Structure formats: C-alpha cells, structure tokens
Amino acid sequence: MRVRHLQSHLHDERLIYKNKLQALQGQRLGIDAIHWLRSIQALKDPFADALGGVPPGIFGVVDKELEGFRRLQITPVFIFQGMTPGPKHSMFVNRMDQQMMDAWSFLAKGHLSEAQKFFAISTSRINGDFVYFIFQHMRYRGCEVFQAPYFAGTQLVHFAEQGAVQAVFGPPGLLLFGLTKAIINIDFQNVVFDWIDLERILDKWSLNREQFVDACMLAGTEYCLTFPYLQVDQVARFNFDVAVNVAKQAPLVRWMDTFPEVPTQEIKADHMEGYCVCKLLIQSSPVYHVKENVVRPFSSSGVVPSDYPAVLGALLPNSLYFLIVSGVLSAKLPQALAKGEWLDKSQPLVDTQEYRQLLADVSDYRQRALGLIARHLPPYFRTKRILCKAFWEHLQNRRSCDSGSNRRYLQPEKMQDVIRWNINATNVAQELDRQGIKKVDFKFCLAWHANEVLQEGPLIKDLGRCGHIPENNRGNDTKAISAIVHFMLLEHLGLIAEDGAMTVLGDVLKDSPRQLQEPCLVALEMMKFGILSGEPFEAAERPFPEQVRYPQPPVDSNTRSLLLLSRVMSLVPMKLRHGMWNADVDFDLAAFHSLVRLVKRVLRYLTEASLGSILLKNLHRVTLLPESLLCASAPGESVEDDSRGVLPTFMLPRACMGIVCLFFLKYEGDAVSFPRELVQRFPCCSRPMEDLATAFLFWDDLKRCVRKIAEPLGAQELAADMEAASKVLARKRNELGLFR
Fold first, then answer.
1. Between 589 and which of 174, 254, 319, 655 could a Cys-Cys bridge form, CB atoms 3.0 to 4.6 Å apart?
2. Do 23 and 104 form a contact (C-beta atoms < 8 A)?
3. Residue 523: in which H helix or E strand, if any?
4. Three-state DSSP class for 541?
C-alpha cells in the first residue's frame, strides 16, 4: 500500500538508513515484485507505452538484476499482487492528459528529449501485461515466485512472521501491516541497501503504532483520500508532518466524527468509506497461511469482518485459490467472479472511439472465459452478474456510475456443450512423430485435425460432447494438456465449428508458416472485430493534438495503404537489444497497439480459463505443468528459442516493426545506403533487415488468408485494400531492390 509522501518525509527526517548488501548474504529476502520492478532504472523507457506496453529487452534487464542476487548469495522470493480491489479515487491513477498531449506535440516538432520527459511522467511502465510476462519469465528462470491471493504486502509480512523469509523488500507502507523493519531500496552498483525501522520512527515522532497507521491514512493512500484539514491550499506542498501532528491530537475515528466542511455529501461519504475500507485492508487482508494451507484473514483471530464481501468479494473455493498462488491463473477472472466487478481502469495512450467500442465487443470472449472457470464453482458464481466499469467512468463518481442507465454487465457463459476431444499422451506422441516435430502448437493441432478428417481418425470419429471419453485417459501428460487447451481455443475462437469441423478461418490458418501463426491469428481476430483496416481512428473525447497532423477521413488510397501496411507489419515482433528505444514512435501505431493489447489480453484470458477448466477437474494435473508453461520470453532476448511457452502466450509484439516499415516506405535515399541508414536510425534493433524480410513474408501470408475468406466472411473491402497496399509495397521493394 502506497502512502502519500511517507518516503520523502522519512528521507527529510533522516530515518532512512544504509547498510552493506553483504549483511543479507545467505538470507531469504521476501520482495514486493511491483516495488522491485519500479526500482529498476533500466526498465524506464519513456516510449514503452507508445510501442505497445513493454520496453525493449525487458527479460535481459531482469536477468541482469537477478544475477545481482545470485552474486551476493541472496535468495529472493518474489511476491506478486493478487486480487486487490480497485482504488476508490484517482489519486494514483491519473493519466495526466495534458502532459500526454504535450508529449505528442513535442514529438511532432522533432523535440525528442522533451517528448521523452512528458511520456515518462504521463505513462505507467508497470502495467498488468508487463507484470504478467515478467512473472512467467521469472518462473521459467527458476526464481521463487508466488502470486498472493490478495495483497503482496500482507503476504510478505505473514511470510516474515512465519520465518519463510528473513528480510522484506518493499514500499514504506509495509509498516502499516506491523512489519518492524523494511528494505526500501537495493543498489547493486554500490552494494548497499536502504532500510527503515518502525520503532525508530515511532520514537522520533512520539507515536504509538495505532497513531502511525492513523497518520498514514490521514495523509492518503490508494484507498482513502487525504483528510481535508491537511489540504491547506493547492499551491503549498503537502507536508506529512501535519498528518503526524493531527494523529497525535485524536484517533482517526474522532476526526471522522468532526469531519470538516466539504462541497457535497457524496465527497464526505467517499472519505468516510475510504477510511473504513483502508482500515479493513490493513487489519484483515486475506493471505495464504503457510501452516494451515488455507486463505484466510491476516489477523490472528481469523474472524471475517461482515463487510468483507463488499470490499474483497465472495470467498472463493480453495481449488481456485490454489491455481492463483500457483501462478496458473492471473487475478482478473477470479476477482471478477468474487467481486462482481470488471474494471478496465487502464486508459490507452491514444483514446479512440474504436478502443471504447472494442471494450464492449470483447464481452463475449470475457463471458466465455468466466464461464469456463465458473462451471466448476458453486451455482452462486455461475449466475453472477458482473458490472463493467471503464476508465472514462470516473473513479471519484463511482456511485453515480453504478446508478446510471447505461451500465454494462457480463455473465459467465454456460459451458455444458464443450467438445470432448479424444486427446491423450499416446496419440499426441504419435501425431508429433507423424509430423516430425517436437512441440504442440496451433499449426500442429490444425494439421492433426485436417489429417484426421481425411483419415477418419479417432480424433474426429469418436468426437463427443456427452462426456463418454474417460477423464483419466485425457490430458495425462504435459503435451496432451497443451493439445487440449489449443483445441479448446480453436473452438472458442471459431476456427473449429461446434460439430468439430474446421471453419474457413481454421483452414487458412493451418497453411501459415509456424513462426507466423500467432501474428496471423491475432490479425484474423482483429479483422473479426472490424479493427484491421487502413482507415484513420476517431478521437473519443478530446481531439487529437493538432501538431501530429493526423489524417482526417476520407483519406486517399496511398495514405490508407501506408496505414494498413504499417499496422499489419507491426504485429510481427522484432529482435531488440537491451536498452531504450531511442528512435521515433508513431501516433497511429500507438493507437493501433492499444487495440492489439486489448485483443491479446482477452486471448490470454481464454487460454488461462481453458487451462483452469481442465485443472479444476483434476488438480493433480498441476504437477504435469513445467515452469515454462506460459513463458513469453522472446528468442533473441537472452533466452533460448525453446523457452517459448508450452501454451500460447500472446506476447505483446510492440509497434517497432510498423515504425521500421514506415521508414522503409517513406525512404527517399539511394538503395545502396538504405541498410546502413536503417541500422543508424534504429540502434535498438539487432537485425532490422532480417526482420523486415519476415514482415514482408507475413504481409503476403495474411493477404493469402484474407483473399480466401473474403467472400464467405464478407471481407471483400479489406481484401481490396490489401491488394492496393501490396502494389505500394511492391513498388518500394523494386525501387530499393529488396527481397525480390
């Protein structure tokens, strides 16, 4: 839990101490993973959000940090956040729209350094996608990673109390939960760490523990607003010392009784509710108890407060908590089922009408994912209505949003009719041998399906939806589980029909090259949602910055071709060096990749839910899952090629390839100089010419797919646009003599 200005006040009061890292040698160090990631300077690429959400070389940067622990013989235990309730106000989630507008304006004028500064202060590097991929990478690397069922902070304190870790690294707010000492910064370069001591703080400030908690709540956290008496004016810098003095005068509950004048009763109610919620979370947040092997309140009494469901949602079955702490399921789906709320709080870098519409359009996939999990839970969860709240429904007006007439709801889809594929270790091994490959993926499954149709094999012949296939003969090894999940995804995405036959989408995807299967699948999904085109995007509320000179519809054929080519090719990942993306970013591609992130996120939910549905039938199957289960570490980023996940990972591709494509399409120099200028312009790209060739191959393959599905699926307009764009691409390739 973050406390407003607590760390800066501790620094001013000289209550932050230093020690040599050797003092931690041989110890198990519990680490708040989010706080640790925020502290890594090399991950702070201002353009990360504009590129699609993750900075270049993230896995190599993390590996280097992990090496620092190994070198000093410190065993890190990383605790990731679980099902935390959304903040009650926008204190820590403000997008700072004006700074974002300024960032794009500076970039359009060619002022790169100024643009970077504004991007840095108005974007968040540590987003949900970023954390998801880091968790899976660290798990693959053999780190001790643990996803807390709820708050990472309380879980860390519990582990410290039980002796599972000897020291704790995290934000100063850890002291709220009763931790006596906390490490708040680690400096491997100077081999030192910064730490704080609660007893010394209490002694210097003449407080007891209850007063310290009250002072922090008066100052403000994610869950409670700063007490009005402390907001002297809008200009003067907030002083934490005032909160300390107020807490000394009377307990927080007394101050709530003498609440000062506020503009509206709703604002007063927000303050009061926030303090109550924050107090509950500090005193009784649920944790995984290591001795009892159960999830229950952090407090020693174990008593569940009566308002628990309103704050944290319903208690989940132990089997679902087990999948959460094992890292098989991320927190989003279980939290929606428990709380009855789906919060899309992340505002895209470029807010468009297309993004807002897509949030509604992906509801079917979200409901399907929820249904796959809920089918194994008590009836209460299967029929639960889940309220959707988007970022534009302002957090400070949650009550008015809840009572509005335009509320959107999700409900878990009923999933009784799921194809029961006859997949086991034996027939998967036989099919891998027939195809002469080692890994189960989409291409393997589509090829297997096509061959079984021709041969009338058991996969098709004995197909059933009535559960006649014995459960113990299905999914009895890692590759069999992977195959079942892949087939479930193909069915849910409409590549395999309800009767088990292959659809036109599955038929075209099976012929795509293996390395391009996932980008092609994502492109087809975006086509289905109507967001794969060469048309300019439409601003949602605020107009796009004038300096960007974003094209206004209707646009000419050449502009439409450039937009379509760059968007499609941006779906192909590039091989990047460690370090910052010290090159251009593109406004249109930033908007497009906001859509890509949303599509890939919902595809990951479907993947997790399919796997979770299999495991909830038989939890012993968890022992069959390797550490690389969902590892998305890309080849060329300090990780071996075979580390790609056993299941589809839907890693964010970044917009880099699209940016390079635009440079190629707009290049006016001579052909001989192009390779050299390409390398100079994009120093972060390790093999730009090779990646450009792959992007051209992807374009040709996607055009083949669209041409085949155009008539049956009504995609004639996209097919015509791709034909026109192909002519633009061909002219430029001939002009530069590239890849002909």
1. 655
2. no
3. helix 517-528
4. coil
